[in-house]
Amino acid sequence: MKGIFTALMCSFDEKGQINEKGLREIVRYNIDQSKVDGLYVNGSTGENFLISTEQKKRIFEIVKDEAKEQVKLIAQVGSLNIEEAVELAQFATDLKYDAISAVTPFYYKFDFEEIKDYYNTILENVDNQMIIYSIPALTGVSMNLDQFGELFENEKIIGVKFTAPDFFLLERLRHAYPEKLIYSSFDEMLLSASVLNVDGAIGSTFNVNGHRAKQIFELAQNGQIAEAREIQKVTNDLIADILENGLYQTIKEILKLKGVDAGICRKPMKTLTDEKIEKAKQIAERYL
Ligand code: NGF
């Protein structure tokens, strides 16, 4: 379960329906071209919070069918509707996903006891291992070292996808829980997190830049920091341009230029203007 995991995109058509052929091509591109170690399915990058339960299930099915046992698969099942979270967790487990993951419950200001109950409830109903998905910038939910420790007391919780620029907490977590899996999750901070000995990373830009993420991670593990820094620099030039142009839309546009039918993003995400499509082309030509 260690290494570079792509936070997988999904291809949608103009009606917001899943483009199965396109999704299969995205899976193949990640496995065959970028050679990532795993796929994180139905995360933020997969536009999970914009789609129906049936669509989430169908994406789990298609990805598993395409990837088979070639890479590790993590299914993000988190939902404010706890019955949906349990249903998706059971569904992905039946499909033999290697692990499930759930975003911390958001929107309402849940206290820590409620958050803990959410994870324990999902896990009481499913025979699988869980990776907490912590992304305070989007959920507004921050947890401290002791709270992560309390969640980790449940042995089925095997790790955390740590999407925050808090390197103090990351170091404390690494030190306190050497047996748990820690995935860093801001791609632009991959080297800094790798130096702190995270077990892997999960990221959106790996859909097009997974090969460089692998290099950064492996070089850092070998102590080749200067070489890793060079690749992180190019990576961050790329990420800065992608962020400026529109994150998920630009990644999809770049995938299309690579021959992958990545479709468009679901509403309310907007589509790229002609000018931004041209800019995406320039980004691809410059960096990929
Ligand atoms: O897209 C976001 C939103 N974060 C992703 C990643 O943390 C999301 C990150 O790769 C993810 O893993 C998921 O799909 O669930 C950034 O897009 C990237 O570092 C550029 O800033 O914060």
UniProtKB/TrEMBL annotation:
Its main location: cytoplasm. The gene is nanA. PANTHER family: N-ACETYLNEURAMINATE LYASE. Pyruvate binds at residues 45, 202. InterPro entries: Aldolase_TIM, DapA-like, NanA, Schiff_base-form_aldolases_AS, Schiff_base-form_aldolases_CS. GO terms for molecular function: N-acetylneuraminate lyase activity. It catalyses: aceneuramate = aldehydo-N-acetyl-D-mannosamine + pyruvate. Transmembrane segments: none annotated. It is an enzyme of class 4 (lyase). Belongs to the DapA family. NanA subfamily. This is N-acetylneuraminate lyase. Keywords: Carbohydrate metabolism, Cytoplasm, Lyase, Schiff base. PROSITE patterns: DHDPS_1 (PS00665), DHDPS_2 (PS00666). Catalyzes the reversible aldol cleavage of N-acetylneuraminic acid (sialic acid; Neu5Ac) to form pyruvate and N-acetylmannosamine (ManNAc) via a Schiff base intermediate. HAMAP family: N_acetylneuram_lyase. It is found in: Cytoplasm. GO terms for cellular component: cytosol. Pathway: Amino-sugar metabolism; N-acetylneuraminate degradation; D-fructose 6-phosphate from N-acetylneuraminate: step 1/5. It comes from the Bacteria. GO terms for biological process: carbohydrate metabolic process; N-acetylneuraminate catabolic process.
